[in-house]
Amino acid sequence: MFKLSEIKELIKLLDQTSSVHELEIESEGMKLAIRKPDRSEADAMAIQATPYAYPYTPAPQPQSQQYAAPAAVNEIPAAAQQPVSTEGTLHKIVSPMVGTFYSAASPETPSFVNVGDRVSEKSTVCIIEAMKLMNELEAEVRGEIVSVLAENGQLVEYGQPLFLVKPE
Predict the structure, then answer these.
(1) b/e map 65-89, b = 16+ CB within 10 Å
(2) Residue 155: in which H helix or E strand, if any?
(3) CA nearest 34: which of 56, 57, 16, 52?
(4) Which of 71, 96, 127, 147 is least surrounded by CB atoms within 10 angstroms?
């Protein structure tokens, strides 16, 4: 089975080269195919990457709250309701793929992280389910969770910000 970090590294390597546009790897009965889209295909690829083909259309948001997750005010802690004034210094943890965002390993367990929690580079912050595979997403930065931008069970896009972290 391919690890999420390995897939990310392969995508980065493919993105950095101009001579290779497609890569196929088969290992232990699993097959991974990565193709570099041209600019016109990039938007269509995000929707076609999942067999469910749910188009993602973000809800319109006020300019000052453009990174806030849509949710009822009662569900968000008071610290998360405040607009983040140091947004330029924050690290965004983004979705590496199209899939479903899960904040916990199961409905009965607490969330991996909440606003105010400290994380390390290897801390699991969420799970992204893509094509029935559960992919744990790590923080990749040491710091404090300032904002959770996705709701549990929400469909997320490739590159969509999921968390804001104040780096240490």
Answers:
(1) eebbbeeeeeeeeeebeeebeeeee
(2) strand 155-156
(3) 16
(4) 71
Distances (CA, A) of 133 to 30, 75, 110, 130: 12, 28, 21, 5
Q: CA 103 to CA 126: how far, in whole Å?
A: 5
Residues 42-80: tens digit of each pLDDT? 555 554 544 444 455 566 655 554 444 444 444 444 444
Tell me the pLDDT tens digit for each residue of 29-43. Answer: 778 778 776 655 555
Gyration radius of the chain over CA positions: 17
Which tokens sit at 39? 């600019």
For the chain, give the number of residues: 168
Q: How many Cα atoms within 13 Å fall on the side-chain side of residue 162?
A: 30
CB-based contacts of 5: which residues, under 8 Å, 6+ apart?
138
Torsions phi, psi of 33, nearest 5? -125, 125
pLDDT at 14 over 80: no
| Cα–Cα distance measured from residue 15 to residue 151, given in angstroms and rounded to the nearest whole number | 30
